[in-house]
Automatic annotation (TrEMBL):
Cross-referenced SUPFAM superfamilies: N-acetylmuramoyl-L-alanine amidase-like
Name of this chain's protein: N-acetylmuramoyl-L-alanine amidase
Alphabetical keyword list: Signal
Signal peptide region: 1-21
Stored Gene3D superfamilies: Peptidoglycan recognition protein-like
Coiled coil: none
Family of the protein in this entry: Belongs to the N-acetylmuramoyl-L-alanine amidase 2 family.
Organism: Salegentibacter salarius
Keyword Metal-binding attached: no
Length: 195
């Protein structure tokens, strides 16, 4: 093979590799992994499931931009893994781990919560099998979804939909599944745009 032929072959190989790398990076999503926020291990067995639906929640608490996402996830895990008092005075029984698979903070940062291959938890009564639970920080009955949260939610939905082959038509709000006002009217009214 001539020098020119070898050069052209190298250019073609490099171009193919660059295109492959670019496609891979497009499928990647900037996200804090569990180890990044110092997650503890689950404290009990969890039920495995196949991700099939996407369900949107809000934290139902006022946004706290001054707290880091790492601190928020650690606090959520501490609350989740023990019997904890609820706002209405009832006691929530301990869960194995954080209830949600993904958390979106006020600055738009996304964090991995519970392993997506295991069912989440809820204080409401509905069948969680197959539901990928995303929680957005805030009380969206009283607060607005911040632009950076909305952008991150759209990116996360695209990632989950592509990575796990889940139709966007499965996107619902928590209130579509159970007796609750979650994810709050200001977020719920925007969900059709995600589908």
């Amino acid at each position: 093979m001539s020098h020119i032929g070898k050069f052209i072959l190298l250019v073609l190989i490099f171009s193919s590799f660059s295109l492959f790398a670019q496609q891979n990076s497009e499928n990647e999503l900037a996200m804090l992994q569990r180890e990044d926020w110092n997650a503890k291990k689950p404290v009990m067995e969890m039920k495995s499931h196949k991700p099939q639906f996407i369900t949107i929640h809000h934290t139902g608490m006022p946004q706290k931009p001054q707290l880091s996402i790492e601190k928020k996830l650690q606090a959520l895990q501490n609350f989740s893994q023990k019997d904890s008092p609820m706002a209405d005075g009832s006691i929530k029984k301990a869960w194995a781990d954080v209830p949600y698979h993904f958390y979106i903070a006020t600055n738009g940062k996304i964090a991995e919560g519970r392993n997506i291959n295991f069912q989440g938890n809820s204080n409401t009564d509905y069948n969680l099998e197959g539901h990928v639970l995303i929680v957005v920080e805030g009380d969206f009955n009283n607060e607005k979804v911040l632009p950076q949260q909305w952008e991150s939610l759209k990116e996360l939905i695209s990632y989950i939909s592509s990575e796990y082959d889940i139709s966007r038509n499965t996107i619902s709000g928590h209130k579509d599944q159970a007796e609750t006002s979650c994810p709050g009217s200001n977020l719920y009214q925007k969900l059709p745009q995600l589908r």
